[in-house]
Amino acid sequence: MPRNAERGTVKWIRQGQMLYVKWMDTREVKMCSTFHMAFQGDTTVRNVRNTEGTWTSCCVPIPVSVREYNKFMGGVDLSDALLKYYSIRRKKMKWYKALLFHFIDVAVVNGFLLHKELAAQKQRRPLTHKRFRELLVEQLVDFHPGRASAAASAPVSSPGLLLVVVLWVQLVDLVASQSLSVTLAQWITPARRQQAGGDVFIALLMVSII
Mind listing the UniProt keywords for this protein, alphabetically (predicted)? Predict the structure, then answer.
């Protein structure tokens, strides 16, 4: 399919029961199916830029397989999109760090989705994804506007998630750099146990490195 193909262009080929479809949306979409027809006259609304440079809404053709995918699998794509908007992952990281930060991303997105569901149940307006993350960061670092001096002088009674993450990465880095594995008994000193919140953090470490 040419790169300058119009939005809604559909091309397909079939061999036996296998159907292969190409559809031009904002980018080229490819689908395989064994039980769909290639096209049944369905349309979808898309914003298209006209020759004058303004955007207008119009109906464009859409293959049956793509329409069904959007209908039944939209939640999966939504989750993937939310993970990419404000991801904390960065390139050129060690694999275990990338895995850890991915789990944090998933946890934050799941928390945001739960927040939206609870807001709908209570008939309240939910926070935006960005504001939810900002508020989460403030709570994790125990930040209170106008109380910075008091917060700085007050003793920390419970660990934040960021501290747990930092200590987890330190432990994994240590294990990866040693020729012999470092046991939990060697690494978990009384100071680290107290700093990280005691048995809760120890349980997290044990689950993380199993």
Answer: Membrane, Transmembrane, Transmembrane helix
Looking at per-residue pLDDT, the higher value among 187 and 105 belongs to: 105
Q: Rounded CA gap, 106 and 83, in Å?
A: 7
SS3 (DSSP) at 73: coil
Alpha-carbon distance 161 to 196, whole Å? Answer: 9
Dist. CA 57–CA 49, nearest whole Å? 9
Q: Return the half-sphere exposure (C-beta side, CA atoms, 13 A cut-off) of residue 129.
A: 14
pTM: 0.41
Instruction: For residue 203, name the pLDDT band (cuts at 50, 70, 90).
Output: very low
Q: List all residues 6 or more positions away from 192 whose beta carbon is below 8 Å from its beta carbon.
A: 167
Reported residue count of the chain is: 210
Contact 132, 102 (CB under 8 A): no
Show the DSSP H helices in the chain as ranges. 64-72, 74-85, 95-121, 129-140, 148-153, 161-177, 184-187, 190-196, 199-209
Residue with tokens 């917060």: 151
Residue 44 pLDDT greater than 80, yes or no: yes
Give the 3-state secondary structure of residue 32: strand
